[in-house]
Amino acid sequence: MPFSAFEASFRHGDISRKVRSRLDWSLLERLVRDGGAAIRVRREASPAWAAAHTAYSVWYTDDSGTFADFHHPAAAPIPFHRITRHFGALPSASRATVRSMAAFFEARRGAVLPVTEIVTLELGEGRVVVLDGNHRLAAVFLKRGNRPAPLPVMFVEYRVTAPLSADLLPDLSHHRPTAAPTGAGTDGARPGGGEEAASA
């Protein structure tokens, strides 16, 4: 995907699509231009996607399980497969948004899956950090009553593959290094350097 189209949609676009994580857009633009990064669009149903990925939010808890600032010395990113366990720690406004989105997705269950967009950064080894769509992912993964988890939806995923540096995204300081893809040739609240006020 051309960088200009990605930027128009997720940096300058409608507020519902804006990446609010602290992504260094200028650095990403240079990396894409020089062939060191790429943005690819993928479509996959949430059950298959969840089986293949460990996705991390830009929301954090400390070692007591309390919602934490990105800079807290014990801050740990919340993975979506554990969102139910950490749900009570989220700010009340975020919990309300997640519940509302879950109800929206559930009401549209049927032969045709509801579609939602997410933006991720490839960490390697099947791991991603979610740059945009944290509330949507939480709604999909949250276990409530007898409903399936993950809730069946179709993800349209904008996957960023780039060298993993906290210069690009401060949240990367919370993720251990791996043999992550480093270039375009691979297919591949204030919590968080992530998002302002848990507003993904």
Protein described:
By secondary structure, the chain is α/β, with parallel strands linked by helices. It is built from six helices and seven strands, in the order H-H-E-H-E-E-E-H-H-E-E-H-E. The protein has helices at residues 3-10, 25-33, 46-52, 83-86, 92-107, 134-141, and strands spanning 38-45, 54-61, 67-68, 76-79, 115-124, 127-132, 154-161. Strands 1, 2, 3, 4, 5, 6 and 7 form a seven-stranded mixed beta sheet that branches. It is globular, with a radius of gyration of 16 Å. It starts with a helix and ends in a 39-residue tail after the last strand.
Number of strands: 7
Contiguous helical run count: 6
> How would the global form be characterised?
globular
Q: Using the CA coordinates, give the radius of gyration.
A: 16 Å
What order do the SSEs take from the amino end to the carboxyl end, as H and E?
HHEHEEEHHEEHE
The overall pLDDT, averaged over residues, is 86
Largest sheet: 7 strands, mixed
Terminal-residue CA separation: 22 Å
Instruction: Report the portion of residues in β strands.
Output: 15-25%
Helix content: 25-40%
Structural class of the helices, strands and pairings? alpha/beta
Return residue spans where pLDDT drops below 50 for at least 5 consecutive residues: 180-200
